[in-house]
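We keep the chain:
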Amino acid sequence: QVQLVESGGGLVQAGGSLRLSCAASGRTISNYAMGWFRQAPGKEREFVIGKSASGTRTDYADSVKGRFAISRDNFKNTVYLQMNSLKPDDTAVYYCAAGLTVDRYNYWGQGTQVTVSS
């Protein structure tokens, strides 16, 4: 089992930046693909970005390409989501996820709220 805890959410103005953290426990994340998803009010949860366990593959949602980046620190067992040039449409609860492959995530955090004001 992998336990995931997100932090770093908050309120930011449009055009600003925010970095989310996802601290993992239970197992080392070096064996897992790690990703971020988000869910806006009234919408379904959607994929944002993900990185394979090897680090050789990174997938992005079109809406965040060029603005968001994912990084992982296997020593700290932590994954980060760097969000730049934020837009009001980025407002959502952001969830960290872990899985054996980038196509299947099995473990989820509780989410952290990100609100972007215009």
User: Anything to note?
Assistant: The mean pLDDT is 96. The two ends are 39 Å apart (CA to CA). The CA atoms of residues 25 and 58 lie 23 Å apart.
